[in-house]
Write a structure and sequence with these properties.
The protein is of the alpha/beta class. The protein contains 12 helices and 10 strands. Bound molecules: D-glutamic acid. D-glutamic acid binds next to helix 4.
Length: about 280
Amino acid sequence: MVIFLIFFKVKDRPIGIFDSGVGGLTVAHAVKQLLPGESLVYFGDTAHLPYGDKSAESIRSYSRRITEFLLEQNSKVVLVACNSASSSAFDTLKKEFENRVILIDVIDPVVDYLGTRKFNKIGVIGTKRTISSGTYKTKIAEKSPGTEVISMATPLLVPMIEEGFIFDDISNAILRAYLSDKSLTGIQALILGCTHYPIIKNQISRIFNFGIEVIDSARQVSQILKNTLEKNDLLNDTDHVNDRFFVSDYTPYFEKIARMFFEREINLKKADIWV
Ligand code: DGL
């Protein structure tokens, strides 16, 4: 009986998810769709947004503290729902936390998915941090050696999305300026290498006349999460879910986007984890 209770409590623990801001909500939303019985604890590091302009060292230190915070919230998994952190901090997090919690990033699941497709030429867009790390290029070269990868930093997109410029003339002009670059001619797929970008996925697809596959990590990541929970016998299917959202700096936009994604009021708190 005691063993059963301990076992139950482990399954009952939440999935910890973090990003610099609203981007990781695209992953959180997909997780919720696939695993409605799981509780989420989300941390948006809005005080340090954007991560894409920061040094790898700073991102590692933010990611480390946020992981500790998510462990303090009793998370059974920590999902790094940020490409900038996945490319710069994931190896460090694995070294330091893997013996305490299951860690999942947003890059490997997409690279694995690409391995099942046979593309000749693809594009990857992301923050300056993600693109300059070369993580996508290196990992895709290992798993899909014949695929040519064109990487492009698109640093205006995160501030644009965080400021609410979506599906309008401004966002369209910025997207066209980036995506009409000649180097992208002939791509068969475009990886959205930033978890903010799925918010404007449709607008991006439209620029390519819906003629290429636009790949975001949310679906692949939530499927990997489900498989991992099943494998470790940690899948929760209760209907007593309790999703909690934390930010390091309060912004009304975060609440608005979160409400839009989850179609309900959300439990949002400011957490001063840097003091
Ligand atoms: N959404 C994040 C990513 O996937 C971070 C963007 C940023 O803060 O610059 O890279």
